[in-house]
Amino acid sequence: MKKGITLDGIDGTLYDRFALTIFTYICQHVSHEQDAEDLLQQVFLAAFKNEGLTELPAERQFAWLLRVAHNKVVDHYRHLTRCTLVPIHQAWSLEDEALTPEQYTEQQEKYARLYQALAHLSPLERELIQLRFSKNLRYSDIARLLGKSEEAVRKLCTRTLCQLRGIYHQTERGSSNDTL
Q1: What does CATH list as the number for 14-91?
Q2: List of residues 6+ apart from 99 with CB closer than 8 A
Q3: CATH class of the domain comprising 101-175
Q4: Which residue in 62, 97, 101, 139 is deepest, having the highest Cβ count within 10 Å?
Q5: Are the C-beta atoms of residues 36 and 30 closer than 8 Å to each other?
């Protein structure tokens, strides 16, 4: 290789010749200079990976780099629309949604009491609860499945929920008396 001739066959590298122009283009389309610098780096990383780019004339190289820069800007904005950015003062006020070990244990105990209470219901009442709350069916759909009127299903569901609530509270009081 001759002195002064680089891999792209011309004095000066691809970066030296086009970086400022590409950077200016990117800066016109993004709001932060740091983002523009990151995108410029991605453009030239793509150029580095494209072995055929060095064979093209300078105008075609520039056109290719400009097209890649455009695509990187578009990708940048697509990514921003998927990310929800929250100002730092609001981020501090957001609570951690994860349950503490105590809350998790308490939740598991409540589930156990609920399953005990459900066991006291008749098979029809359990099926009604499952259709309404697990499968999220409407009263009209449940009525068709059970061969009953919609009004009868509504009343049965109301009575079943009252009965279930009473059984649940009885088991809750029973378990709290056991710990005393």
Answers
A1: 1.10.1740
A2: 107
A3: mainly alpha
A4: 139
A5: yes
- Would you say the pTM of this structure is higher than 0.90? no
For 22-54, write each residue's pLDDT tens digit: 999 999 999 889 999 999 999 999 998 998 888
Is the alpha carbon torsion for 142, 143, 147, 148 positive or negative?
Answer: positive
**Amino acid of residue 167:** I
Model confidence over 61-103: pLDDT tens digits? Answer: 999 999 999 999 999 988 877 766 667 766 666 655 677 889 8
- Rounded to an integer, what distance in angstroms lies between the CA atom of residue 64 and that of residue 59? 9
Write down the domain spans for the chain.
14-91, 101-175
Which residue, among 127, 119, 121, 173, has the nearest Cα to 147 in the 3D structure?
127
